[in-house]
Structure prediction request, 176 residues.
Amino acid sequence: IALINRLSRAGYAKIEVTSFTSPKAIPMLADAEVVMNGIDRFPGVEYTVLIPNLKGAERAVYVGVDEFNLVMSVSEAHNLANLKMGREDSFKALSSVIELAHQQKIPVNISLSTSFGCPITGMTSLPDLMHWVDRFAAAGVRGLTICDTTGMANPEQVQTVCQAVLNKYPRLQWTL
Prediction:
């Protein structure tokens, strides 16, 4: 709480405060509600949280978060390894979170892991990445984060990806 308050006073526009993961899965984050209720809310600062699933989203709604940040891997193998489900199942689960967010008027950002490359399957093609960008854009997210999860990106690839996503979706909020 003290760290988030110091970051707020430092003038950051957006701070990811905590994650509403299962307390059984990650006991260190069992205090997400306590943390969100304990921070000082500074005007002009958006307080976002990581939301892994619908149950986490329902918990987050009650503490008045400003944005949901959802995560899915562009790589099928990475998504299976990290989230224990395929991308289609992840997309379906996250779609229900996006629907709840829309009902509650909470903006959504989706972080796409392994957007540039995956240590299991190699480099991510632009068409593979754009497939998921297109689907989440159509689902009505406010922003997308293109993640170089394992440090595989190269400058040319970053430029190509940035040009492609910005040209196609200039009104979305973009984060790298």
Observations:
- The first strand starts at residue 14 and ends at 19.
- The longest helix spans residues 87-104.
- The radius of gyration is 16 Å.
- Strands lie at 14-19, 46-50, 67-73, 108-113, 117-118, 122-123, 143-146, 173-175.
